């Protein structure tokens, strides 16, 4: 058996940001329940960890096998690498292989953009065009995920201005230039810019909060998706307690979200209640006018499957 392999460049050409968001949205509107998704499986590897992400669907199923090597960037190599295999659910025959890191780099920003789009629309203070625009955006992070998040959010909720907050000034300046080439009003920023932000995107590898929760205005939307694990967080626990919170799935968040667990225990969150992405897409979140909104994600297997399916079917004659 010979399988087609889509490398990073081919996968990037196969689906754009707006389409990826639409694919995830349609999956949530139709047959995906995030609470039934398979958990991610971690296993130690010599230079880091193996990450296995399986999920099953009616027509297609898939598995992403990724490696996480924390020391790789210092050696000029990717931190995350891997491969995705799509299967026919009826026969379990493999259908196509794809670059796993690029698939992650596509579906993660698309998931965030989907959440931002619907959280903006759910805000009772926003009317007309304001409900569809991201407005003033602050981005924490200056790597590939930061750039792709800007592209994805701008595709579905146009950005008016963007401030880049990066640990390395050179990387932040380079990302500012890329944003300016996109036609955006862009500049280097600082944590203080959160006070004037409509949307805050946290796509860093930080293990400690990036800004003071008191800076976040009641109308703002914050997305924290960069750090994973119960011992890492990008936001102040006070923000999680104060905000209207949306997660990809409640079960996955309770297993892995360090942005939430320090704020409340699992039992307290279960009592308090969390909205998942499917519920958000179906209009079941009523945002409160005196509170900001927070989306926090850990990455889920159904997202890979939805995007991989769209790519595969787009490759068929």
Automatic annotation (TrEMBL):
In the UniProt record, which is one GO cellular component term?
cytoplasm
Fetch the Pfam families from UniProt.
OCD_Mu_crystall (PF02423)
Highest taxon in the source lineage: Bacteria
What terms describe the molecular function in GO for this protein?
ornithine cyclodeaminase activity
State the EC number(s). 4.3.1.12
Is Lyase one of the keywords UniProt gives this record?
A: yes
InterPro entries xref list: NAD(P)-bd_dom_sf, ODC_Mu_crystall, ODC_N
Is Cell inner membrane among this UniProt entry's keywords?
no
Record keywords = Lyase
Gene3D superfamilies from the entry? NAD(P)-binding Rossmann-like Domain (3.40.50.720), ornithine cyclodeaminase, domain 1 (3.30.1780.10)
PANTHER family noted in UniProt: KETIMINE REDUCTASE MU-CRYSTALLIN
- Report what the protein is called: Ornithine cyclodeaminase
UniProt source species: Arthrobacter pigmenti
């Amino acid at each position: 058996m010979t399988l087609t392999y889509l490398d990073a460049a081919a996968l990037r050409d196969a689906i754009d940001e707006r389409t990826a968001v639409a694919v995830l949205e349609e999956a949530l509107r139709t047959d995906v329940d995030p609470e039934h998704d398979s958990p991610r499986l971690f296993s130690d590897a010599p230079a880091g960890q193996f990450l296995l992400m399986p999920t099953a669907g009616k027509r297609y199923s898939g598995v992403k096998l990724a490696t996480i090597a924390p020391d790789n960037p210092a050696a000029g190599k990717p931190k995350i690498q891997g491969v995705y295999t799509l299967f026919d659910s009826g026969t379990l025959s493999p259908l196509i292989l794809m670059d796993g890191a690029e698939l992650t780099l596509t579906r993660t920003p698309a998931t965030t953009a989907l959440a931002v789009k619907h959280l903006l629309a759910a805000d009772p203070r926003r009317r007309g065009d304001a409900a569809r625009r991201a407005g003033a955006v602050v981005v924490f992070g200056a790597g590939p995920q930061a750039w792709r998040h800007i592209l994805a959010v701008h595709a579905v909720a146009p950005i008016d201005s963007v401030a880049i907050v990066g640990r390395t000034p050179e990387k932040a300046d380079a990302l500012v230039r890329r944003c300016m080439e996109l036609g955006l009003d862009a500049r280097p920023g600082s944590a203080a810019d959160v006070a004037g932000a409509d949307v805050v995107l946290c796509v860093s590898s930080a293990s400690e909060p990036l800004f003071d929760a008191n800076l976040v205005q009641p109308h703002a939307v914050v997305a924290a998706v960069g750090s994973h694990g119960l011992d890492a967080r990008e936001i102040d626990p006070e923000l999680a307690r104060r905000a209207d919170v949306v997660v990809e799935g409640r079960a996955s968040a309770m297993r892995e979200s360090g942005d939430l667990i320090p704020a409340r225990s699992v039992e307290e969150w279960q009592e308090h209640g969390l909205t998942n992405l499917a519920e958000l897409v179906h209009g079941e979140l009523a945002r409160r006018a005196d509170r900001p909104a927070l989306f926090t994600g850990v990455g889920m297997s159904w997202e890979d499957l939805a995007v991989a399916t769209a790519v595969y079917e787009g490759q068929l004659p």
